[in-house]
Predict the structure.
Amino acid sequence: MKLIDGKALAAKMRAELKEKMQKANITPGLAVVLVGNDPASQIYVRNKIRACGEVGVRSYSYELPETATQKEVEDLLDGLAKNPEIHGILLQLPLPKGLDAESAMARIPADKDVDGFSAENLGLLTLHKEKLVSCTPLGVMKMLESEGIDPTGKQAVVIGRSDTVGKPMAMLLLNANATVTVCHSKTKNLAEICRNADILVAAIGRPKFVTRDMVKEGAVVVDIGINRGADGKICGDVDFENVADKTSYITPVPGGVGPMTITMLMYNTCEAALKG
């Protein structure tokens, strides 16, 4: 069993991105829009702004009150879309109740959609013409690549079908020539399907859901979940202690996929700046 160290890979990639932008003499600009005062969102935004500093991305932070109207949010996004100094726009979700996230996200042009959530970018991914890809799944692919794990011809199982993680994860693996099965809450014989996986990706947000009997001997296990367990400690969707020794590679939580997500946001912002 080998741990795939997302923290170390993220640090290496951030240093490479900084050097790449310096050589290109480009300062990418990322606008982060936060509506309301959700504590978790505030922490995420702070982490994203800190990462910008590490990579040499200029960050623009916009905070709107909980009482902001749909028009105020969309007017702000329209202005950012027209600003040539801003290469990436990130609207922190969830939005306060009463606001339409889908309508607001549609104001972000596809070439500035560094979260990779827009209908256009998801569509391009489906057509294997991807430009800006959802950060967490992209981070997973970079982690596999860093360890020389080639999905070609392998059985891959993704547990979770969210538009932001599960579906794009499945498409990236499919585009990398894996044979992909997507499982969800209505899947029958889940454990049996998972036991066939050479690459098993858990993205459902249920603590320690994937147990030892669900994992094939020598499988690569990628844990995208970040949960708080009954003991109050951070844990993933995989029962790490009981599963790890059965795997060939496994990602820890914390320190696995998490650090890569924000690094891929920086990667997408730099890519957008290079193409802009």
User: Anything to note?
Assistant: The two ends are 42 Å apart (CA to CA). The chain is about 40% helix and 15% strand. The first strand starts at residue 2 and ends at 3.
